[in-house]
Amino acid sequence: MKKGLLLLLFSSAVVFLAAQEINYDESKIPPYTLPDPLVMENSEKVLSESDWINKRRPEILSLFETHVYGKSPSHPHDIYFEVLSEDRYALNNMATRKEVAVYFTGDKKHYMTILMYIPNKRTGAVPLFFGLNFKGNHTINDDPDITKSITRMKPRDNQREDQVREFKRGEASSRWPVDMLISNGYGLATVYRGDIDPDYDDGFQNGVHPLFYEKGQTKPKPDQWGTLAAWAWGLSCAMDYFETDEDVDATKVAVLGHSRHGKTALWAGAIDQRFAMAISNDSGCGGAALSRRRIGETVDKINKLFPHWFCENFKKYANNEDALPVDQHQLIALMAPRPVYIASAVKDQWADPKGEFLSGVYATPIFELFGLKGLTDNMPEVDKPVHSGHIGYHIRSGDHDINYYDWQQFVKFADKYFK
Ligand code: GCU
User: Fold this and answer.
1) Residue 43 catalytic?
2) How many domains does the chain have?
3) 409 C-alpha to center of ligand 1: Å?
4) Which atom of ligand 1 is nearest the CA belonging to 400?
5) Atom number of ligand 1 nearest to Cα 297
6) Distance from the CA of 119 to the center of ligand 1, in angstroms?
């Protein structure tokens, strides 16, 4: 082989490897300047609560819609609900289990099923933790009477979507400590995300997106909703139901999620201020982690791995983070003055725990505008949660996951506001 060709091959291999390489080194983070949440697009300063609520918040929300998650349609005008089942003796008589269909269309063809557990020992309507599950409602608990969700995962080879293996009853129960929540007086509600939009790139044909296409439209426009926004929209539609359910205190619903569902929970809290609290667990890139840090998962990586999650416009910011008109601390700020919790795990470097924490730090001035406490600059030690302000935070030992320890912290934090 000619020397020139060899050199060319070698250098292309180096370029390829460098592009693949993931940075985990703080010292290699390029210098960056974050957009100031308290300076408006016309350079005026935010001086009061009312400036924030009426001017700056809508501005930031719209920037996130246009450049990151995409705009979602309004809720269907003919949305309606149906209680499919109710059992007042679930979980050894500790809870009432309900399954509720939320129909997106009048013909009953498109719907999601909310699975709910409400503590039987209650004096009135209860506060609720609410979030998406990955594998189906029946996987969150061994309870034999949960209706199995229709699994909607990416089919392989010649499979059809409905031929993909089902997940086992209770297989995700370590992530959903229902008994603990019930005994602490909380209800739990969850929806299988596949009911809203299956989590794979099929050109936006198999979820809720086509229900809203204009005549001749085949996919969302560059600033219209991706999959994460569709999930958040679904959560917000569920809120319409909670407002009608007398067992639920709809003023005390915490929207929460792990990882991609943590990104979704934060976005749901941003678009729907009826959520009284948002909790992000290991949400990483596109969630609580600052995009400009370019450590662990980056905008480029996430768009390549999950091209369907964000709106098309977000792809412009791959390896071009400084051009983003927003960063993720502003997503946390959109929760103000409602409390928000950010959880990280020490071995979850892909999600950039420090970047998740810093978002809370840089969102703090907005909470202070309301006379509330956020986070101080010092990252707490591992397994030493900070619950003193309106932004809660912990970094737990262990891996990327949501476990009993995480939930215990969420309950302690929620107790401060909901009890
Ligand atoms: C991948 C993805 C993350 C995401 C995670 C999850 O690791 O890169 O962005 O948070 O999956 O949802 O578990």
Assistant:
1) no
2) 1
3) 22
4) 13
5) 8
6) 32
Alpha carbon of 182 to ligand 1 centroid (Å): 29
Please tell me the predicted confidence (pLDDT) of residue 416: 98
Q: Is residue 67 part of a domain?
A: yes
Q: Which atom of ligand 1 is nearest to the CA of 285?
A: 9
* Catalytic choice (149, 236, 259, 344): 259
In a domain, 347, yes or no: yes
Q: Which residue has a Cα nearest atom 13 of ligand 1?
A: 259
Check residue 21 and give its pLDDT.
86
Residue 400 is a catalytic residue: yes
Q: Domain containing 107: what range?
A: 61-152+161-418
10-residue block means of pLDDT along the chain (419 residues)?
A: 54 50 96 98 97 98 98 97 98 98 95 98 98 98 97 85 86 98 98 97 97 98 98 98 98 98 99 99 99 98 98 98 98 99 98 98 98 97 98 98 98 98
Q: How high is the pLDDT of residue 157?
A: 80
What pLDDT was estimated at residue 10? Answer: 52
3-state secondary structure the chain: CCHHHHHHHHHHHHHHHHHHCCCCCHHHCCCCCCCCCCECCCCCECCCHHHHHHHHHHHHHHHHHHHHHCECCCCCCCCEEEEEEEEEEHHHHCEEEEEEEEECCCCCCCEEEEEEEEECCCCCCEEEEEEEECCCHHHCCCCCCCCCCCCCCCCCCCCCHHHCCCCCCCCCHHHCCHHHHHHCCCEEEEEEHHHCCCCCCCCCCCCCHHHHCCCCCCCCCCCECCHHHHHHHHHHHHHHHHCCCCCEEEEEEEEEEECHHHHHHHHHHHHCCCCCEEEEECCCECCCECHHHCCCCCHHHHHHHCCCCCCHHHHHHCCCHHHCCCCCHHHHHCCCCCCEEEEEECCCHHHCHHHHHHHHHHHHHHHHHCCCCCCCCCCCCCCCCECCCCEEEEEECCCCCCCHHHHHHHHHHHHHHHC
CATH of the domain at 229: 3.40.50.1820
- pLDDT score recorded for residue 14: 44
Ligand 1 residue neighbourhood (C-beta within 6 Å)? 259-260, 284-285, 297, 302, 305, 350
